[in-house]
Amino acid sequence: QLVESGGDSVQPGGSLRLSCAASGYTADYHYMGWFRQAPGKERKGVAAIKSSTRATAYADSVKGRFTISFDAAKNTLYLQMDSLKPEDTGMYYCAADRRFRFYVSLSNYDYSTWGQGTPVTVSS
Question: Is the pLDDT of residue 26 over 70?
Answer without folding.
Answer: no
